[in-house]
Amino acid sequence: MTDRQFNIIRIKKKLIIMILINLGLFGITFMVPLLSGKFFFISLVCFFAGTIGGALSLQQRVQKIPNSELDTIANSWITLLFVPIFSGVFALILYVIFLANIVDGNLFPKFEIPHEPTKGIDSRYFINLFSNTYPASLQDIARLIFWCFIAGFSERFVPNIIGKASNSGEEEPKHEKMENE
């Protein structure tokens, strides 16, 4: 067995362990609120779906990684965790993008969001917002999990959305300016 093959096997074993741990944590985020009747952390569901997507993406790409990087990844848990952790962060960013309605359509989840108080937003509203904002239906939960997985699996997906949103944000003032002239 070559060093490359040995490193690939080591990485795949670590990824399996990481995916199993994430699947367990993913399941716990559903089970604890179900059994205790307590707060359901939808953001954790998003994060774990993204980390699972990132780990599976890395598992599929491991054969193409250059030997120098392969050796580093095989010998360091921290380096191996970079992709899944960043993937989870991208999934959280995508969750915020959905909440803000930056992307919209039948393929994307809808949410039940508490109404803003007439007196203005205060700290109580934020507590209410974070504890009572959920996907509107079972299908919306499935859509959210799917897209968070995609955010982790496809490392360019969320940066592309951010790029398109920032470009459209830059173009709108120019467009408005031309209409006003």
Please describe what this structure looks like.
The structure is a single chain. The chain is mostly helical. The protein contains seven helices and two strands; from the N terminus they run ααααβαβαα. It has a two-stranded antiparallel sheet. The radius of gyration is 20 Å and the shape is globular. The N and C termini lie far apart (71 Å). 23% of the residues are buried.
Question: What's the SSE blueprint?
Answer:
Elements: H1 3-36, H2 42-61, H3 67-74, H4 77-99, E1 111-112, H5 123-132, E2 134-135, H6 138-153, H7 157-180
Antiparallel strand pairs: 1-2
Helix pairs in contact: 1-2, 1-3, 2-4, 2-6, 4-6
Strand order of the largest sheet: 1-2
**Rg over alpha carbons:** 20 Å
What is the subunit organization of this protein? single chain
| Main sheet summary | 2 strands, antiparallel
Number of strands: 2
How many domains in all?
1
Shape: globular
User: Residue share in helices?
Assistant: over 70%
Q: Strand portion, in percent?
A: under 5%
